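Changelog note: in this version the structure field was regenerated for every chain. One regenerated record is shown below for reference.
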Amino acid sequence: IAPAHIENLGSEEAIADAKAEIFGGLVHGGTAVIPADSPHFERLRAAALECLVRHGEAADVPMLVRLAAQAANVPADPVRKTLQRMGKPGVDAALINLIKSPNAAERAAVLGVLASRRVEAALPTLVELLNGADVVLAIEAAKALGVMGTSGQLKELAGMMAKTGDAGLRGASEAAAQAICRRAADKAAMARLVLPAWEQATA
């Protein structure tokens, strides 16, 4: 990318945008190379990710999750935004399959994306992880339940609040239960679900 056509396009940024249009023409399995040393790298990367929103498939999910995990400390990372917005069939299932990745950063990225996408099919797996031996993963599962959980998960969350000795997991479970209750129209019904579970867990 250089000012060779700047008289027509007005700026190097506009030239970069024009070059990025090639991403939209790639066939499945095609390859485009983005120069990492270009001052327009982030602009081109964002354009490539935007194309994946429209054209990305379930088979692309593992690669994007790996990228999202590498950028775990970047707020509103564009890779995660891409995963949140992909709409092709099979994307949700591909994400659920990666919940138990051996890589902790990948697991955290997947749970965050599933919560953003409100994938209800993931709820049973989230409950399983909440009650699992991996405390870090249980905390991430509790956070995800806080975003997408329903009254059906309140019993498990209340039980975890009562029985866990980990302050982080207790706090995450309590926050998740509170979030679910806030979303419910019938607060009294939520209390009727939570209190027996708490009493049973502390008996």
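Spot check on this record: The mean pLDDT is 82. DSSP finds twelve helices and no strands in the chain.
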